[in-house]
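Same chain as my last thread, 73 residues:
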Amino acid sequence: MKRGSKGSDKELDSYSKMSLPDLNKEIERCMWGSKNGGTTAGRKSYFKRLLWLEEIREDVHGIEAPRRDFRKH
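reply #2:
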């Protein structure tokens, strides 16, 4: 089942099994894309995935996800 910017259930399973350094690297990639992606829609997609990945990191590794707002990002 597709979840839009958040990814599929298969991706959720894959990211949930990632090591913390690998997950942090993916979060950094999305953070960069949310600031430097081409269009507003592209940046927002990166931002949504960033939030999703930080939520996974919080659930799996216990690192609290910061509150973020796309308009103030």
